[in-house]
Specification:
266 residues; alpha/beta; single chain
């Protein structure tokens, strides 16, 4: 009978324990609102200390209080992910004040809906700079400090794979590129460095971006495209991020997990 290497199979670790992030340190960008806040809170609930990055420091401080109320340590660093030096400053602060970087969740993002005939170079570039290049600069900054077993979770979107009728060339392009970026970084880092890189593709959740959408449009999309006939709850997307960040996903890298209530099945 073939012998099982228990050190690799995790035979001595229970399934629920694999989801625990006790003793881990996570970096979350875009932590001032929406999914970024939900990711930070979920990480703290799972046992991680959290370094919070975002442009709106007042809102970051509110997220910091939420994390601390759960008994975890948190720090805030005002961060514009389009500036590589600021990405490095966030990573350095996490190391200096929290002692490690085990998890990065690249949640900072910018969404627009501009007809392609009218979208300006600066409008298109701003979305690419934030969503795609910001994720890359943060991954670069954090991976320099990460040890084997660490995990990066990039935030893509169902808009990488489909369209709901809005003119979102920049947003959709950036989110599709994140899937390719995830795949390439996994190929570079998972075998050589032992660092997993995955992505989430959320569907429609209550965020600042969906708040700006026409209510009739949202109602139409939910009724016609979302199999579960509702918006997702922020905690549902956060739970998926915890899975990818944790040892429960220790043999998963280079993939994109869709969390969309069945939108992609329609």
């Amino acid at each position: 009978m073939e012998q099982i290497d228990e050190s690799r199979s995790g035979a001595n670790v229970g399934v629920l324990e694999k989801f625990s992030l006790n003793g881990k340190v996570a970096v979350v960008t875009g932590a001032s609102s929406g999914l970024g806040v939900a990711f930070a809170v979920a990480l703290a609930e799972a046992g991680a200390d959290v370094a919070l990055g975002g442009r709106r420091i007042e809102r970051l401080l509110a997220t910091e209080k939420l994390v601390q109320s759960l008994g975890r340590s948190a720090i805030c660093v005002q961060t514009d992910v389009t500036v590589p030096d600021q990405c490095s400053a966030l990573a350095d602060a996490a190391m200096n004040e929290l002692g490690a970087i085990d998890i990065l969740i690249n949640s900072a993002g910018l969404g627009t809906a501009v007809p392609a005939t009218r979208e300006t170079p600066s409008e298109f570039s701003a979305v690419i700079q934030t969503n795609l290049m910001g994720s890359y600069w943060m991954a670069q900054a954090c991976v320099r400090h990460m040890k084997p077993g660490a995990s990066i979770v990039n935030i893509s979107s169902v808009m990488a794979f489909t369209s709901t009728g809005l003119p979102q060339a920049a947003y959709s392009s950036s989110k599709a590129a994140i899937v390719a970026l995830t795949r390439d970084l996994a190929q570079q880092w998972s075998g050589r460095k032992g660092i997993r890189v995955n992505a989430l593709a959320p569907g429609f959740f209550p965020t600042e971006m969906t708040d700006e959408m026409n209510a009739d449009f949202m109602d139409h999309v939910i009724k016609s495209r979302v199999t579960m006939n509702r918006l997702g709850e922020l905690e549902e997307c956060a739970a998926a991020a915890i899975f990818l960040a944790s040892d429960a996903a220790s043999f998963i890298t280079g993939t994109c997990l869709t969390v969309d209530g069945g939108l992609m099945t329609s």
